[in-house]
Amino acid sequence: MLNKEQNIRSVDRLPKVKNVGINWKEYQTSIISFAMLSIGLISDNYFKFSFFTNYVRLAWYAIAYLPVGLPVIKAGWKAIVNKDFFTEFTLMVLATVGAFAIGQYAESVSVMLFYAIGELFQGAAVNKAKNNIKALLDVRPTSASVLRANKYEEVNPNSVQIKEIIQIKVGEKVPLDGEMLSLGSSFNTSALTGESKPKSIYQGGQVLAGMLNLEKVIQLRVTKKFADSSISRILDLVQNATARKAQTELFIRKFARVYTPVVFFLAVALVGIPYFVLDTYVFNEWLYRALIFLVISCPCALVISIPLGYFGGIGAASRNGILFKGSNYLELMAKVNTVVMDKTGTLTAGVFKVQEIVTKGMDKIEFMKTLSAIESKSTHPIAKAIVEYVKNESYTYVVDEVHEISGHGLKGKVNKIDVLAGNTKLLKKFNIEYNEDIDNIVESIVVVAINNQYSGYVIVADEVKEDALDAIRQMHKNGISQTIMLSGDKNAIVQKVTKFLGIDTAFGDLSPEDKVQKVEELKRDKTKTIAFVGDGINDAPVLALSDVGIAMGAMGSDAAIETANVVIQTDQPSKIITAIKISKATRSIVYQNIILAFSVKAIVLILGADGLATMWEAVFADMGVALLAILNAVRIQRMMF
C-alpha cells in the first residue's frame, strides 16, 4: 500500500491506469486498524473493562498498529538501506514507536492510521488526474479499414503506409492523418482541440487522427504513419511533459530534503536542551512534544500537491487544444509580458483567396476563366487561389506556349489568344498601358492583359483569422504589455494588418535572419519575457531563441512543432491567451498550496513545542493539509478557460 516501489508520490510518468472504481482490497488494512482502534477507544473511555489493561491493552493496540504500520516500516527500512535516512516513512515510524514507548498507544495507532488513509486518498487523486488525461487523449483506434486488392480490410493502424486509402464509417474515429478524397463530412474534434463545435472538412482538406466522423462514409489518402499522427504526437507530448520540471517544483524538492532533517534535529534538541535549563524537566512530556514535531515535519502537502498542480495544468491545457512540453514552460508562460507573432499562418489563415475582381470592358466570368486557364500552369499560391475560385465553373480552354518570366508573371496563349498575367512590372516590360492607380494597391494583385491590351486585375489576399482581433484585445487586457508582428510579407500589407488588429509594433520584408535579430534586440531588455508564435520552417530559429516558443500545430511545419515549447492544435490565436490564463491559474494554485502548507505547519510546530498541540493537531497539520492541498490542485482540471 505504501511501498515506495509503487511510486504513489510521483506524477512524473503517466503509466497505464485503468478506471475500475474503488479497489476495496487496498482499504482492508485501514478498515481493520480503524475497527480495532475504535473498540480500544471505547474500552478506554466508556466501558473500561477490567481486563483491558497493561499487556492486554498494549497487545490490542499493537495488533491495530501493524496492518497500517508494517508497510511504512518496510518502506522506511528500504530508504535507510539506500542511505536515505530522513524520509516521511522513517519520521512516521520514529514518531509512532516513540508514542508507544511513552504509553500513548491510541494516538500512535491514530497517527499511522490517518497517515495510511491520507496516502490512499492521495493515490486516488493522482490516479484520477492520470485517468482524466488518458481518457482525453488515448482515443487512438486499434484498427483501420484500408483498401488493398480492391477491397477494404481491417488491419492494425501501424501497418498502414503513406498514400494508402482508408475508409472511415459514420461514428468511427479517424485512425491516421490523411487527405480527404470524398466530397466532405463533419467531425467532432474535441479530443484534439477541446472544441465541441463540429468541424466540416471538404475534399482536399486535412483530416487528423483522433477526429470522430459524424456525417457520412469517407475515404482518406494517408499522409502520415500512425506513430507520426496528430493524436500519437499529442499523447507523447503529454506523457513526457512532466519530465521537464518547473523551477518551483525543483526548489520544493530540494527544500524538502533540507527541511525534513532540520526539523528532525530540532525535535532531538527539543528533547535534550530543556533538560539543562529547566528544573521541572519531565522526559515523557518533552519527548511527546518532539514526536509531534516529527509528525508535522513530513513535507507531504508540498511534494505531492505541487507536481499534481502542474500535472493538472498540463491536462487542462490539453483539453483546450494546447500542448505544453513541460511544466517549466507552463510556469514560464505565466511570466510572459511580450508576445511576438508571425503573420501568415499565425494571425492570418495562410490561404490566399480572391478578394476583388476589376475588369475593363470584359465580362468578369469570362475574364476569370481566361485567367484561371493560364494560372493553372503555375504552382504559385496565388495561382492556386485563382484556380480554386473558378474550379466549379464548366469550361474547356486550350492553354499552350506558357512561359514564366521570373519576378514578373506568366506569358502564354489561351485559345490561341495572347495573355499576360502577373504584376505591373510585366505590363511595363511589354509596354502595355494601365491605370497607374493600381500601383497604390497594398494587397497582392494579378494584372491581366489580353491581346496586348490591359483587361483588369484581381486582388488576392490572405484572410485574417476570425478570432485574431479578439486575441490581440484579450492580450492587452491580460497583462501583455507589448504585441509585435514580424513578417516576411511586404511591409505595406503587414502595416495594414497591424492597424486592423491593433498590434503595437510590426515589421515587414524580414528574412528569417532579420526575425532572429529583432528578437535578440528584444531579449536585451531583461524585464521582457518573450513568447514567439509561428508556424513555418523559417520560424524555427526564432521559436528556439524566444523564452517560450509557440507553434500553430494543425497547419504548422514539423520543424516549428518540434522546436516549439507549446503547440496550439487549433491554430487559433485566441488560444495564446487561453494558455496564459491556464498557466497563471496553475501558478496561483501552486502558490496557494505552498502558503497553506507552511502556514499551518509553522503554527502547529510552535503550538507543539509549547505543549499546546497534541498528536491530533499534528495529524491535521500533516495529512489534513496534504488532502486540502491535493483537492486544491485538482481543482484546475474543472476550471473553464
Automatic annotation (TrEMBL):
The keyword Membrane applies. It catalyses: Zn(2+)(in) + ATP + H2O = Zn(2+)(out) + ADP + phosphate + H(+). Residues 140-239 form the P-type ATPase A domain. Its EC number is 7.2.2.12. It comes from the Bacteria. The chain crosses the membrane at residues 58-77, 89-106, 258-278, 290-311, 589-609, 615-634. The keyword Metal-binding applies. It is found in: Cell membrane; Membrane. GO terms for molecular function: hydrolase activity. Pfam families: E1-E2_ATPase, Hydrolase. Keywords: ATP-binding, Cell membrane, Hydrolase, Membrane, Metal-binding, Nucleotide-binding, Translocase, Transmembrane, Transmembrane helix. It is an enzyme of class 7 (translocase). PANTHER family: CADMIUM/ZINC-TRANSPORTING ATPASE HMA2-RELATED, CADMIUM_ZINC-TRANSPORTING ATPASE HMA4-RELATED. Belongs to the cation transport ATPase (P-type) (TC 3.A.3) family. Type IB subfamily. This is P-type Zn(2+) transporter. It comes from Aquirufa beregesia. The gene is cadA.
